[in-house]
Amino acid sequence: MGPASLQEDRELRKESKEEMESYRCLLQAGSQLESTLQEVTVPVSMKEVGGYIEKQVAYLSGRGEDSSVIITLPECSAFSDIPEEALTKVFTYLTLIPTRQPGVKFIIILDRRLDTWASIKTALARIAASFPGNLHLVLVLRPTSFFHRTVTDIGFRFSQEDFMLKMPVVMLSSVTDLLRYIDENQLTSEFGGTLDYCHSDWIVLRTAIESFAVTVKDIAQMLQGFGTELAETELPEEAKAIECLLELHTDKYRKLKDAIRSVSKEGRHLLSSLETTAKEDDSQWDVKLDWETVQLLAQLRDMESAFDGFFEKHHLKLHQYLQLLRYEQSFQEMELCLEHLTAQERELCISANSLAETEQALKRLNNLESNAQEVTARAQIIILHGHQLSAGHHYAMALIMQRCNELRHYCDTLTAALKSKHTHLLQTHQMLLCLGQAQTWCDDAAYLLANQLVDKFQSKEGAQAALRDIEKLLEGAPSMLSSGLDIVTAEYEAVITPHFQAQIGKMFEKHAAVQQMIQNRQACLRKLADKHVRPVQLVAPRPENTPRSKSPLFSPKHLKFTFDLSLPGKRASRKVPNSRKIEVMHDYQESRSCVSYSLDGDDSPDLLKHVMRELIETERIYVEELLSVLLQGYRAEMDNPALSGVLPPILRSKRDILFGNMPEIYNFHSVFLQDLEGCLEAPEAVGACFLERKESFQMYESYCQNKLRSEALWRQFSDCSFFLECQKKLEHKLGLDSYLLKPIQRLTKYQLLLKELIKYSTDCEGTSELQGALAAMLDLLKSVNDSMHQIAITGYEGDICELGRVLMQGSFSVWISHKKGPTRMKEMARFKPMQRHLFLYERALLLCKRREEHGDGCDKTPSYSFKHCLKMTAVGITENVKGDVKKFEIWYSGREEVYVVQAPTVEVKMAWLNELRRILTNQQKMLRKQQRASVSSEETESGRSSPDPQPHSPKHQHNRRWPGAPHSVDICEGLEEWPGGRDPFHPSDTEEEVLVQLSPGRYRVLADCLQNGPDSIIIKRGDVIQLQCEDNRGRLVKNVTLQQEGFLPAATLQLIIGGSRHENSSRLGPGNLKVRKLSSP
Prior knowledge:
Layout: H1 3-40, H2 46-54, E1 59-63, E2 69-73, H3 84-96, E3 106-111, H4 117-130, E4 135-141, H5 146-166, E5 169-172, H6 199-232, H7 239-280, H8 285-294, H9 296-347, H10 355-391, H11 397-451, H12 460-475, H13 479-483, H14 485-491, H15 498-531, E6 539-540, E7 559-563, E8 581-586, H16 589-598, H17 604-630, H18 634-637, H19 649-653, H20 655-659, H21 662-677, H22 686-692, H23 699-717, H24 721-730, H25 736-740, H26 742-759, H27 767-790, E9 793-794, E10 806-820, E11 823-826, E12 834-841, E13 844-852, E14 862-871, E15 875-878, E16 887-892, E17 897-902, H28 906-934, H29 954-959, E18 1001-1004, E19 1024-1031, E20 1034-1039, E21 1044-1048, H30 1050-1057, E22 1077-1079
Parallel strand pairs: 2-3, 3-4, 4-5, 9-14
Antiparallel strand pairs: 1-2, 6-8, 7-8, 10-11, 10-12, 10-17, 12-13, 13-14, 15-16, 16-17, 18-19, 18-22, 19-20, 20-21
Helix pairs in contact: 1-6, 1-9, 1-11, 2-3, 2-6, 4-5, 6-7, 6-9, 7-8, 7-9, 9-10, 9-11, 10-11, 11-15, 11-16, 12-15, 15-16, 17-21, 17-26, 22-27, 23-27, 26-27
């Protein structure tokens, strides 16, 4: 038992002693009251003899000489019928009332004036046998009739001795004889006296007095019993039980007080009645004697006062005990909170090795400090409450003050520890920040030195400008670099670890190297500025043969960069073949080494595992959130009968719209999480994990496409009580709509985490898989985004799913022209483009017009009105259009329709061209497979048209023509066979249309053509065809071999016979197929 417990025990014993003293006073008052009650209480009560008293068998009626008490037995015909026992009780009751005075005597007046000697004799005998008191005299009024009086005289004369031996009997002839024995004012009116006596009032008064005595006795017993209960009740150890006990005792106390007030009121009323009667007649003995009974009021008040004192002390003790229990409970809860915070503070690691880790630790520390401030504020409230209890003279004052001191010590210790760690982390953060700034400055310095062009140094102005750049750089050097290693070490001595010491040392070594480079460069530049060196420009028509030793700046350690200075937009092939190139030498070796040096401090494996842990942890949280929505929350609760009353039936039937394919996503990620957890120790394997599940991620496309319908349904029922009940049950702070957005948010998170993994996975195994996973996730995001736009297309009458997967989409400016007859007609003004939103599918290109739907805020969504559909089998492209590098052409059905498309940027244009090339190239490959499958024999005339003997010469490259640009629809897999072909990511510089125009005449077919339709024509390899007129259905073609006619699109003709312009042979199609124009019309 500790000191506080001992002190509490002493205080409790002291309080119990005072309470027991009050209890003793209560018992003493109760004993006195009980003694008084025994003195004034008559053993026989009015209830026992009330029936005979009411018949006036006998009654008390005044006093005789020597204050003797007169008992009158009036004429009563039922006297002889009263049982002996009852008569004895009546006499006992009447004699016990005045026996409270010692030596009292009794006189009996026996009125038998209308009776006989026999009844008198019987009555006297019964009186002699039953009367319990000191009988002083019996006055008998004998019968008034002559006969009965004579008989009575004779009978009494013979029996007088018998009666006289037992009691003195006086036989009276008339009422007047009574006056010789009793004063007339003590006789009632029936005996000729003046005593005002009412028998019924006397009965009522006697009943009230006896009832009052009984009530006082009961109340006294109740007070004693309740006091004993309070004194012997053991105090429970639970606050709830104390509260119930206090409530029970208070209720009993109030009831007792009500009873005491009631009996006191009754006693005061009796006392008032007795006092009034006493004033009217002071000689009425029984009224004066009954004052003693009524005077129990005073003793009852004394007992009530003693009980109030005892109950007040006991109630105060209980109340303070309850306060102590509650305070102890608050103290223990606060102690647990402070211990928990202290444990968190001890677990908080402040040994961070990077700025990111330091900021993360500071963030955790700030959160912990915020929680600690809240908890310590509540602790201060508890301490203040303890002081208030102590100020109220609580019996456990010492214990409460000790608890207050303990809480204060806890709070001070925790606050000091947090403050110390906060100071340490802030200093670490400041050091790392300065270190990072210094490293950045060194990198910037190396970069500046590396990018200063040497050719500019040949002029004084150039050298001075370079010097100014270096001086400006030096002015912005961080203060840490000017302090020196020893000063920095001393300034951050409290937080420097061996790791930081090594980093700071490397940083200063790096700074010394960079400083040496800067000094060398400054010295060189100052010499150049002073000598006014003439600018030197080295020109070499053949840079591969230029000797580098001619310039003093050329040395093996220098790197060389070559820049083509030909102007953009001009065709290089049209220039003089010996175009010049200028070579500029850069002193870049040292700066490159400095940059690589700065990477030595990165702890890539640790950062890699940190990112991997973040990926797994966020994935686990994501799966748990999906589980809470599906199995534990909203979707599962839709089948709960208890909530069927608050769930609209239409909502239950549309649960698949509201949740989409979220169950499928949850099932997938439950397995995917296990795959990720298996990669925790081998983060480089996570790329393969993503690639294995690449196809499964396509389920997000369905979820996102359903999201608009889901949001509309949510907005309709968001205020439904069902959702509020589920949210309350799950204890979610956010509504269901926030959790329905989680899959989309998670999908965008993967590519960010993969980028971080790639960033810290340099030269590790699995880097290529990580790159592939990143590309797959980016493609998925793009596909999802495109599909979200696709569902907003309106007005398309066919099945849009038949067009294949949407590959790209975007807004462009479009000019459309149609070829009608021999001329081309513009549909719109030349300088007024149409704004169209293009959707590129695997099998078609849709042109739509963007329209904004009516709505407010987030409800305002765009839609796309369908305008044109271009089948990819009839599409060709021209990569460059004169006048704008952002324009390209999409032509349809052999340039029957030409769409000039202007992209917002060159990058967007090249992305679309690359995708178009890929689609058209794949179509070519598929067509060649079909052609090869249908070939039944080798072409006998294939050697008639030989290929260009010098296909790779610049001259022949310049004259080659095919539909579209070098990578357009008509180029197949033979592209790789063309050496010197242009980079597919850089558009050609052509300003003219390169579409092959087939002139009328006869041609030999190099590939089969099988079409279905009303105007279809069968053409096989080797057939001779004749090209005739052309209209909007295509070119009218006659198969001379089979004697058939039909229309073929221009693009199909290009594929089966190749292209020719001005009767020149051209090399087209797969496998370097050849074609010859046989004749002209």
